[in-house]
Amino acid sequence: MRDVISKFLRYMITGGVAALVDVGGFALLMTMSVGVLLSGCASFGVAALVNFALTSRFVFHQQLRFDRFVLFFGAALLGFALNIAGTVAGVIWLHLPPAEAKAIGILIALLVNFSMNVRVVFQAVGEQVAAKDANLVVPADVDSATVSETRTAAYRARAAAQQPPSSQLP
């Protein structure tokens, strides 16, 4: 439980940095007379890249991988949609002031995104994945290069165990 809380606190820091990148990028593009829609999309995209890089390394201690980024970005888009839905629902159905509704939308997105990142994108701590070819089980946070090296070493050890010592060769 302590590890999840630690990850969540670090996740809030990386998300805060990404939010600053988003807002700062948006403001910069707006001063350059780029339209609101394009500025918003571009700053969101750059912030997502920054957030992924920071979250991968600082929160989950994992290598950057494109397949993981695709999952991360998908989760970010889901969080964005829930953020907007929560905000609109808060204003229309709960008759909340827009700022309070937005805070609820942000909280919903934060919790959903963190959960998706722990359970899907970066896999939960201690979760095991089967390494093919060598019948090894390795922790999910071990990078693919380490898995490949371990598979190669296990293959060579099996091959050496199946061959007779060189002194017994004809």
Please give the structural blueprint.
Layout: H1 2-31, H2 36-59, H3 66-92, H4 98-121, E1 128-131, E2 136-139, H5 144-162
Antiparallel strand pairs: 1-2
Helix pairs in contact: 1-2, 3-4
Explain this structure to me?
- The protein is mainly α and 170 residues long.
- The protein has helices spanning 2-31, 36-59, 66-92, 98-121, 144-162, and strands at residues 128-131, 136-139.
- It has a two-stranded antiparallel sheet with strand order 1-2.
- β1 and β2 (136-139) form a beta hairpin.
- α1 packs antiparallel against α2 (36-59) and α3 runs antiparallel to α4.
- The termini are far apart.
Summarize this structure as a short list of keywords or feature phrases.
170 residues, mainly alpha
Tally of contiguous helical segments: 5
The end-to-end distance, rounded to whole angstroms, is 60 Å
Give the helices and strands as they follow along the chain: HHHHEEH
Strand proportion: under 5%
Unreliable segments of 5+ consecutive residues: 124-136
The percent range for helix content is: over 70%
- What structural category characterises the helix and strand content? mainly alpha
What is the 3D form? Answer: elongated
| Widest β-sheet, arrangement of strands | 1-2
Rg measurement, Å: 23 Å
In round numbers, the mean pLDDT is 80
Describe the main β-sheet briefly: 2 strands, antiparallel
Strand elements, count: 2
